[in-house]
Predict the 3D structure of the following.
Amino acid sequence: MRRRDFLSSAAFAAATTFVPVPALAYDPEPAASGHAMPLGLLISPAEGPEETIKRVHDLGFPTCFFSLDAYIDKFTPQLADQFKSLLKKYNVTCTTVEVVGPQPLVWDFMQGPTTIGLVPRATRAARIDALKQASDFAKLLGVHQVQTHCGFIPENPADPLYKETVAAIKDVAQHCANNDQRFLMETGQETPTTMSRAIRDVSLPNLGVGLDTANLILYGKANPVDAVAILGPHVHAIHAKDGLWPTDPDKLGEEVRIGTGLVDFKKVFEALRKAGYTGAITIERETHGPQQIEDVRKERQYLDKVLAQIS
């Protein structure tokens, strides 16, 4: 994930004491549609919520994924009521909410390690607070999954930042569990093995993975097919996105339209199905305006064909 508009008119220290995690009482997967894994769209409804949610419906998607950074410190019950009414009006299910802020956030290899996620000490407390706000707001919406980038989690488990990050993830996951929610770590800045280790060390049953199929490539961390072999049972949300390996060691790889990059979606979806995944496949396209809408239409057609092959 990087900062962007999603079919919208919008521009766009960790706790160490925890209570037991209650059993999750919900079924986190959306209702079945044309595919076992229904398609969805990542949107940012920061301006024009009705226009944005209506567009999801008009493009033929039964589900959406909310990016809500613009609402940090501005979540209200009235806003939740507005979103719930619009989702019902347009027959769209919101599967997950995400925040990654507050700023600063620099999506590259040079400043990313000190600005992204729960790893950087300078912004950690504010990010924890923002995620708890998003969790409480999601509870008002009736949404049972909260997602974020946890950042460049250290490969070395003896690194003090690793232990601090695990404690921060545990703090947020505990809060989400108390709201009957999963807390999902979005893939990207860390290797799948490091993410798997963090899941083990946090040791809470509601902690899982939001698999971004392109981020693993854009950050040069893994092939998404191989990542599913490591993380598959923990995956509870998917960003369908395509990309190319980074060739400039200072910059991320290039995000491209689905079907024109290196992600083998058929193999990814087959592996996810074997792992038991039946949730939404959420398209994320980082272009803007009319070009984004045209890209999304083509991506939906492409993924429909892939999903039909494995159904």
